[in-house]
Write a structure and sequence with these properties.
alpha+beta; six-stranded antiparallel sheet; two-stranded antiparallel sheet; globular
Length: 174
């Protein structure tokens, strides 16, 4: 009843998906620009990222959604252009409208109907400490500095989270 009232009052409102322990999912947001490509290359060199639920948004960014690992995870920047979202954070859901005027959308074959959020790969101790917020990743220094790196275009399929970094190298993706 409450949700119907909200939709009647705000029919063009965007939708958020809560991240964290209660929802049992965490998200990685890869912003357009902000040296996201370099950051993601560093992250993919450290872990074998499994294929997972993923969406993109009009600002040419993306969200990767994974199962919550079962311990306290701190929302934080993992480096320039890549943010971990957990307790107290949310991601904007597909069908919402981005400030650019484009809509958030599930990547082809990556919607929750197609693919459940994957479990994170086995995490080495430095990653466990990073996710718990016990250490600041050295690549987070300068995270607010932007660059002109283009990120993801329409129609681009992403088969694994590691391929997100590769998208920054591409320009016209149909």
């Amino acid at each position: 009843k409450q949700i119907r009232q909200w939709w009647n009052k705000w029919p063009h409102a965007n939708i958020g998906i809560a991240m964290g322990e209660k929802s049992q999912v965490i998200g990685f947001e890869v912003y357009p620009g902000n040296k996201a490509h370099e950051t993601f290359k560093e992250l993919q060199a450290e872990l074998a990222w499994p294929n997972t639920t993923a969406s993109r948004y009009g600002g040419r960014g993306a969200y990767l959604i994974y199962k919550h690992p079962g311990f306290k995870v701190r929302s934080q920047l993992l480096g320039p252009g890549v943010e971990l979202k957990s307790d107290g954070a949310y991601i904007v859901a597909p069908r919402s409208r981005h400030v650019s005027g484009e809509y958030y959308e599930w990547m082809r074959g990556k919607s929750p109907e197609d693919l459940e959020p994957a479990e994170l790969p086995e995490l080495p101790e430095p990653w466990l400490q990073r996710l718990r917020g016990e250490v600041q990743p050295k690549s987070a220094e300068g995270a607010a500095e932007g660059d002109d790196t283009d990120f993801a275009g329409e129609g681009q399929e992403v088969n694994t989270a590691a391929e997100i970094g590769r998208l920054a190298e591409l320009s016209d993706m149909d």
